[in-house]
Amino acid sequence: HLTTSLPLPSERDHLRPRIDMIVFMIDIKSKYSLKNVEASLAHVDASFFLGKVCFLVTGVGRVNYCSVEMNAISKLGEVYCSPVLFCELELEGIRVATAQRLLRMLQICAGHIPGVSALSFGTLMRSSADN
Fold first, then answer.
1. Where in the cell is it found (predicted)?
2. If I label 61, which of 14, 29, 49, 85 is the partner at 20 to 30 A Cα–Cα?
3. Alpha helical stretches, state H, the chain
4. C-alpha to C-alpha distances, 89 to 51, 57, 83, nearest whole angstrom
5. What pLDDT score was predicted for residue 40?
6. Strand partners, 24
7. Quick one: CA dihedral 26, 29, 31, 33, positive or negative?
8. Which 3 state secondary structure label does DSSP give 81?
């Protein structure tokens, strides 16, 4: 399910499926997308930041058109203890690999991978990023 911002409208709460993971997309060419993500973060329950949130940064292949500071994006990942993935949607191989990675993360967050919790996965992601 997709939304352009949070909070979600409450009138359909009873029909909404369980939310297992939230992926915040940031277009590196748009300061508005970063501002929208920052505004939406206030509406996410703190428990989701324990392995169930990630930031997906798109447009990274066009550094010339970058409107968003990479430091600001890195800081979001650090402050919210959430992984940051970078993707160029126009390149099919990278798009497919990113989709597969997100799907695997979702399987973990939804509890479909025995022995791996969203919390332990988030810790592993941070540890591998530090190396």
1. Chromosome, Centromere; Nucleus
2. 49
3. 31-41, 70-79, 92-109, 118-130
4. 24, 10, 18
5. 94
6. 55
7. negative
8. coil
CA angle at 121 for the pair 89 and 114, rounded to the nearest 5°: 110
Q: In what order do the strands lie in the sheet with 53-58?
A: 22-27, 53-58, 84-87
pLDDT in tens, 52-62: 899 999 988 76
pLDDT band for position 121 (50/70/90)? low
pTM of this prediction? 0.82
Q: ∠118-82-42 over CA atoms, to 5°?
A: 105
Q: How far apart are CA 120 and CA 114, in angstroms?
A: 12
Best mean pLDDT range from 20-24, 65-69, 111-115: 20-24
| Domains (range + CATH), the chain | 19-128 (3.40.50.300)
pLDDT, tens digit (0-9, with 9 covering 90-100), for 66-89:
788 888 999 999 999 888 999 988
